[in-house]
Amino acid sequence: MYRHDAPASLTLFTVKNVGSEAGAHTGLMINASQRVIFDPAGSFGHASIPERNDVIFGITPRIEQFYTSYHARTSYFMIKQKVPVSPEVAERTLRMAMEYGAVAKANCTRATSDILRKLPGFESLRITFLPDNLERQFGRLPGVVRSEHREEDSDDNSGVLAAIGTAP
Where are the beta strands (DSSP E) in 109-152? Predict the structure, then answer.
């Protein structure tokens, strides 16, 4: 279990196609009593990183960078939208993600929006299957800080996974 010392927060990850800028995947990093990524229907994983039912545990800054680099490559980039929340909201989000269960393919945004809309301060969010729609809705919340991450490496992201095992 990894506990990040930053204040409680939620970070929405939206993976977007470089050519069309259409959303392709949604994930949610939860900084609570431990830092995890809810990666519904996601493909990121490595034997050294604990995962259960689409919740990835132990999200150190190094693992967060691997997660970002895994998704950002020649044909995709990542939007990160971080919002501070109370410790209580962060803990509730963590519990909900852990109880949600594994998510079927193509349901990443639906699952994430389903959790978010049940949280205090997030009631305005609507369930959606579209990553771009959730990104826009989330971006309208007060206090959201947006950043963009692009990389120019190959679409073959297996190298990122291989590097996890060799990184210090």
Answer: 145-149
Q: What is the pTM of this model?
A: 0.93
pLDDT digits over 70-120, tens only?
A: 999 999 999 999 999 999 999 999 999 999 999 999 999 999 999 999 999
The phi, psi pair for 14, rounded to 5°, reads -125, 120
**Distance (Å, whole) CA 158 – CA 119:** 35
What residues contact residue 6 under an 8 Å CB cut-off, 6+ apart? 31
Write down the mean pLDDT value for the chain: 93
| The one-letter amino acid at 151 | E
In terms of Cα–Cα distance, which of 75, 23, 32 is closest to 55?
32
Q: Do the Cβ atoms of 26 and 32 come closer than 8 Å? A: no
The H or E element that residue 15 is part of is strand 9-17
Alpha-helical regions (H) of 45-86: 61-71
Task: Give mean pLDDT, residues 42-58.
Answer: 93
> Which residue, among 5, 6, 27, has the nearest Cα to 16 in the 3D structure?
27
